[in-house]
């Protein structure tokens, strides 16, 4: 890892000439993200840093200035498409674009670091501002505008923030617990804001450049989503290959704005839509189909990005095919459903009736079931003439009712099957202490003081002389006292 | 309205349609297209033809044609319109509380009435009955008086 060693060495050099930096520091082109990581670590380690430059180094690097110069030149000269024949990797423009992508990501990180710096400094003055204004660039602008001002009515925040947010900020400022900053800290904060804003500017330039070259870099992707959105996606993902490696669900989310302040309605906010929202396809779909369209576009654009990352189709034909597919699918979704044909009636009794079952039906059927009495009356014993109501074989026969063997003329109302089941269940549930339950013990006992008092049946078996139960007739009780008389 | 339903004028046509309608109820309306009651009935028949198409087929027989007079005599058709029902070449009768069970005389009050009658006859036919009871309440059954010859 020669790069790592080099960068460490370079950083050591940096630390020694920290205060005497000027724009022409040569720290080599090999520095990458490690630089920012080191900056970050330094940030965390040296919590009471005062110098902005120890935190944000990007703007001073050679790499940064080189790329910015090239970008500006390229933007001025316009696009030159004379490089069809060349293999992509050798093309200097492509290399520049790849560098631009990495640079834009670096700038992003740098902006975050600077934002932290500004926030920490400004906390003394206006701590609530960081939770009201999330976006780092907006925060920097607002801080620059407010400066050291105590009374926010003198500060005009129009155009920097939406008016609702301005209102909230003004209100919070009037009740803030912060105190005005000392002059040197204020100076440093303003410097940091400027730095952040210039970085933002350069990022915009870089992205514009990438966008103008997008048709050459990723023709398929730009055929689907348009070059502006393609540039943004590539920029956020950190390069075409990283974009290609992402799953489609992540591509959908790229560029989502963080949710707005609590208290504002979230009914109108769209969930999980990022840069895809700005594509022409998305804007022209009806609102009901927007989510489906978003997913579709994200999926196809991921495929196109993958094609582009290996330069599988330099002409962009595949991208156009995908675009057409997307358009067709969205149109199909919007088709009205087929008209309802009047159906002829079904043949009567061709569909068997659905028989229902269940407890309710069984109970209802029980009312008409044959009783035991009737069953007995229906049967006859062999060789034994049955009795009949009018005697001598006239009238209704009694069958086995009242026969000698049974002796039952009156058959009691038998328990229905259901009732038997229920009784069995209930018996199991009843509290029973082992097997010897006398008829006088009960699990419910009433005391005049407490009302109903549920007693643990196990404890009952042990207690004999409890005030709530009579042990006189208890089966489990023993003799309490036997006196010799 | 009768242009929507098949109109039969020849005897062979009637024969063939009775023979060839298998496992479906055949509804033959005897009447003329100029009669107003007939037109009402025809209207209902044509509207419900598609609905009952799965278990019934409908045809109109022009009672003024000479070849059909045989059938007019056979079924004793005196009042116009009269509807006769067949199932698998079997003549189906229906007891609607009127004097004549062999045919339905007059129009129906509603389309649903006609469909109910057809369904009921079909069910009975599938079970093997030759005569079924009418499901309609008496208010909706057109009343008529049988004319006897010479009375």
TrEMBL record, chain A:
Q: Where is this region: Disordered?
A: 1-35, 330-362
Q: Where are the transmembrane segments?
A: none
Q: Where is the composition biased (Pro residues)?
A: 335-349
Q: Which Gene3D superfamilies match?
A: 1.10.287.4070, Nop domain
Query: Which GO molecular function annotation, any one, does this entry have?
Result: RNA binding
One GO cellular component assignment for this chain's record is: U4/U6 x U5 tri-snRNP complex
A Pfam match: Nop
Q: Can you say what this protein is called?
A: Nop domain-containing protein
Please verify whether the record's keywords include Iron.
no
- Domain Nop, by residue range, is 217-335
Coiled coil ranges (UniProt) are none
According to its UniProt entry, the protein's GO biological process terms are: spliceosomal tri-snRNP complex assembly
> Where in the cell does this protein reside?
Nucleus
Ranges of compositional bias, category Basic residues = 353-362
Segments of skewed composition (Acidic residues): 11-35
Q: Which InterPro entries match?
A: Nop_C, Nop_dom, Nop_dom_sf, NOSIC, Prp31, Prp31_C
UniProt keyword terms in alphabetical order: mRNA processing, mRNA splicing, Nucleus, Ribonucleoprotein, RNA-binding, Spliceosome
Similarity field: Belongs to the PRP31 family.
Tell me which PROSITE patterns the record gives: NOP
This protein's major location comes to nucleus
**Lineage from the top down?**
Eukaryota, Viridiplantae, Streptophyta, Embryophyta, Tracheophyta
TrEMBL record, chain B:
**Where does it live in the cell?**
Nucleus
Please provide an example of a Pfam family that matches this protein in its UniProt record: DIM1
A cellular component annotation (GO) from this entry: U5 snRNP
What InterPro entries would the database entry show? Dim1, Thioredoxin-like_sf
Q: Which superkingdom heads the taxonomic lineage of this protein's source?
A: Eukaryota
The GO biological-process annotations, alphabetized, read as: mRNA splicing, via spliceosome
What functional role does this protein have? Essential role in pre-mRNA splicing. Required in cell cycle progression for S/G(2) transition.
Name the chain's protein.
Thioredoxin-like protein 4B
- Native organism: Deinandra increscens subsp. villosa
Q: What is the lineage of its organism?
A: Eukaryota, Viridiplantae, Streptophyta, Embryophyta, Tracheophyta
């Amino acid at each position: 890892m020669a790069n790592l060693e080099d960068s460490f060495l370079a950083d050591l050099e940096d630390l020694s000439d920290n205060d005497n930096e000027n724009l022409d520091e040569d720290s080599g082109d090999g520095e990458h993200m490690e630089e920012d990581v080191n900056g970050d670590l330094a940030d965390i380690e040296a919590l009471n840093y005062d110098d902005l430059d120890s935190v944000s180094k990007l703007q001073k690097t050679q790499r940064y200035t080189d790329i910015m110069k090239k970008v500006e030149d390229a933007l001025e000269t316009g696009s030159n498409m004379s490089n069809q024949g060349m293999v992509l990797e050798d093309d200097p423009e492509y290399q520049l674009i790849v560098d631009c992508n990495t640079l834009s990501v670096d700038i992003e990180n740098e902006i975050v670091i600077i934002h932290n710096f500004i926030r920490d400094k400004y906390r003394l003055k206006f701590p609530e501002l960081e939770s009201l204004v999330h976006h780092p660039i907006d925060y920097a602008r607002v801080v620059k505008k407010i400066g050291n001002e105590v009374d926010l009515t003198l500060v005009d925040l129009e155009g920097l923030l939406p008016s609702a947010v301005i209102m909230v900020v003004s209100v919070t400022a009037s009740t803030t617990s912060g105190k005005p900053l000392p002059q040197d800290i204020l100076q440093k904060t303003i410097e940091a804001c400027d730095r952040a804003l210039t970085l933002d500017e350069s990022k915009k330039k870089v992205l514009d450049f990438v966008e103008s070259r997008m048709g050459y870099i990723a023709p398929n992707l730009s055929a689907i989503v348009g070059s502006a959105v393609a540039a943004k996606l590539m920029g956020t993902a950190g390069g075409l290959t990283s974009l290609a490696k992402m799953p489609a669900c992540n591509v959908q989310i790229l560029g989502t704005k963080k949710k707005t302040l609590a208290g504002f309605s979230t009914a109108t906010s769209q969930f999980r839509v990022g840069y895809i929202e700005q594509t022409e396809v998305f804007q022209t779909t009806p609102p009901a189909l927007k989510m489906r369209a978003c997913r579709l576009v994200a999926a196809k654009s991921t495929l196109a990005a993958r094609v582009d990352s290996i330069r599988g189709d330099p002409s962009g034909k595949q991208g156009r095919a995908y675009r057409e597919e997307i358009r067709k699918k969205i149109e199909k979704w919007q088709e009205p459903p087929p008209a309802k044909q009047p159906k002829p009636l079904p043949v009567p009794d061709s569909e068997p009736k659905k028989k229902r079952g269940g407890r309710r039906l069984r109970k209802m059927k029980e009312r008409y079931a044959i009783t035991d009495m009737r069953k007995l009356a229906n049967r006859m014993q062999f060789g034994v003439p049955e009795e009949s109501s009018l005697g001598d074989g006239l009238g209704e026969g009694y069958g086995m009712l009242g026969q000698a063997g049974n002796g039952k003329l009156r058959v009691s109302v038998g328990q229905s099957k259901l009732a038997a089941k229920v009784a069995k269940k209930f018996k199991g549930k009843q509290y029973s202490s082992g097997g010897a339950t006398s008829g006088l013990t009960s699990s419910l006992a009433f005391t005049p003081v407490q009302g109903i008092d549920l007693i643990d049946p196990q404890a009952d078996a042990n207690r004999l002389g409890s005030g709530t139960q009579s042990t006189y007739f208890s089966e489990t009780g023993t003799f309490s006292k036997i006196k010799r008389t | 309205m009768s242009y929507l339903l098949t109109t039969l004028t020849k005897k062979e046509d009637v024969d063939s349609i009775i023979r060839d309608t298998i496992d479906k109820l055949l509804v033959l309306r005897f009447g003329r297209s100029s009669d107003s009651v007939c037109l009402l009935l025809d209207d209902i028949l044509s509207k419900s033809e598609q609905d009952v198409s799965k278990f019934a087929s409908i045809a109109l027989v022009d009672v003024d044609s000479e070849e059909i007079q045989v059938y007019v005599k056979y079924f004793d058709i005196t009042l116009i319109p009269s509807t006769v029902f067949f199932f698998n070449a079997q003549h189906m009768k229906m007891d609607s509380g009127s004097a004549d069970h062999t045919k339905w005389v007059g129009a129906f009050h509603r389309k649903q009435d006609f469909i109910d009658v057809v369904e009921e006859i079909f069910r009975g036919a599938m079970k093997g009955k030759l005569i079924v009871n009418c499901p309609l309440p008496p208010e909706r059954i057109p009343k008529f008086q049988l004319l006897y010859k010479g009375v």
